[in-house]
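Re: that chain you flagged

S.,

Sorry for the slow reply, it's been a week of failed gels. I finally had a moment to sit down with the sequence you sent. For the record, here it is as I used it:
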Amino acid sequence: MSINAIYHHLNALPLWEQMGVITLAQMRGVKLMNRIDTKYVASQTQIMELLRLAAERGYRVQIIDDIRAARYDTRYFDTEERAMYIAHHNRQLTRQKIRTRHYEDGSACYLEVKNKSNRGRTKKVRIEIPQGQLMSLSSCEAVEFLSTLARYDIESLSPALSTRFVRITIVNPDLTERITIDLGLEYIDLRSGRSATTGEMSIVEIKQDGNTTSVAKEILRELRVKPLKISKYCLGTALTVEGIKRNRMIEKIRRIEKRIGYNNIIVSNI
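Prediction finished late last night. Pasting the structure tokens below so you have them in one place:
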């Protein structure tokens, strides 16, 4: 099923009649730009059950102009040798990703720097950019923004991977955690054109300010969905870049296939 088909299917779910909503303005207090993340890989069937149980327990879904499932387009930048990917693959604790993101159901586009600390915390900072700058870091605004934040020579960075998906965002009644659910993931290596999809696989990310009690984690335990550290950038790179170091990612891909069913991951040349 294509991203657009998934998008229309998810926005038409009868489930939304049972789940409360929260607006973008109301979500401002739950941005959690400096946070602890816990990730899971689940099938779309498990996602539907997660949403049903979350609705019963008071979770609300983020809504933008009556849209509950939104399309995202992210472009990751890296060095020619893909140093950011290699750092993550090699389990370097302190690492960085630089990307642009377009919220396709609106006009907002951002340049983002995402840092992971050796204590497991994720900190993200960003600036809004014009849509025409999604594939470039050469504008005055981008150079100024990255000059104090980037750990890499800006001139050494170029577009590496495109990742598109549909995202549902829900929040708990106390507004202390945000859960993002990414479905229909598609990847394109921006240097070769090689593409991949991961079929029924969905990525759930629970974002908290600290290790506080989480009803969402309890629901996932009920559904027998275990945490799995996964990076969309690393997964997409491992699937689409020929010859890249991927021994750790192969093991992870096999675990994903076991969870969601084999023959779900498709790699092709376009």
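What I noticed first: The chain has one domain: 3-269.

Talk soon,
D.
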